[in-house]
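#lab-general

N.A. 3:47 PM
ok so I finally got the sequence cleaned up, no stray characters, all 302 residues accounted for. can someone with queue access submit it? mine expired

B.Y. 3:52 PM
send it over

N.A. 3:53 PM
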Amino acid sequence: MNLKHLYYFWKTAKSGGVVRAGEALHVTPQTISTQIRLLEESLDTQLFARDGRALELTPAGQVALEYADEMFSLSAELEEALRHYPKGRPMEFRVGVSDAVPKSLAYRLLRPAVDPADPVRIICREARLERLLSELAIHKLDLVIADSPVPPSVDVRAYNHRLGASGLSFIAARSLLALHPGALADGGDFPVCVGRLPLLLPGEGSAIRRCLVDWLDRQRLRPRIVGEFDDTALMTAFGRAGVGIFAVPSTIEAETLASGDVLLLGRAEDVSLAYFAISVERRLTHPCVLAISDAARQGLEG
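B.Y. 4:20 PM
back already:
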């Protein structure tokens, strides 16, 4: 079997037709059709059937597509694995970080990838998860760090590698508590005090927001929302300035409190925020990714 013929068949099936496949491969539709016909002749099996002007996979074509998916996925993994061992220059590690992941947590996760004994040039991009996944799919990124697995609505062949989980901690500026002295009085201990203080929320679509809103509903708390932020660092800055209380993953609680201008109100013990490394590899092979995964499993929840 000619792998070039199989590749043209695979691109046609994935693209939805010979015209789109030809555009992706920069060849004419006639060339695509010829390659597929040669593949069908070599297999003595029809892979596509026409439905009007559209092409549909036959049952044999469905089987061929599943095997082709596996073959070309492994081929991409091999290419990626070998590319990570360049000679004479530092290894490049291209990682995307979802904008919903707090910066300090992203640093903690990525820090193990930078080894002075084995120089690495880290190229870090931050954006919404959907955009990062599209770049991952075309191998512009080696890894994506996110607070959720690949959404079902995103048509990207990628694998979720769970790094670990963290609880949720509620933080308030000392200046905010001074303005609301009654919030902690008269049985206002945590979590009751959360309902008595203004609250800052992470942006729509982030896992921490979904967990936080669900937790508030379970506790029957209705705090006054005074701000919503896609950028968690900006939310934290507003929180430190006393605009409202804010929630952070418990794994970065200590460093958030280190400045002394904020206090811990309490922890939501029944909340678990999971974090993921998303890659096109089923089996992790990139040394930087392996370092991140190993370190996260040992200490993310610490």
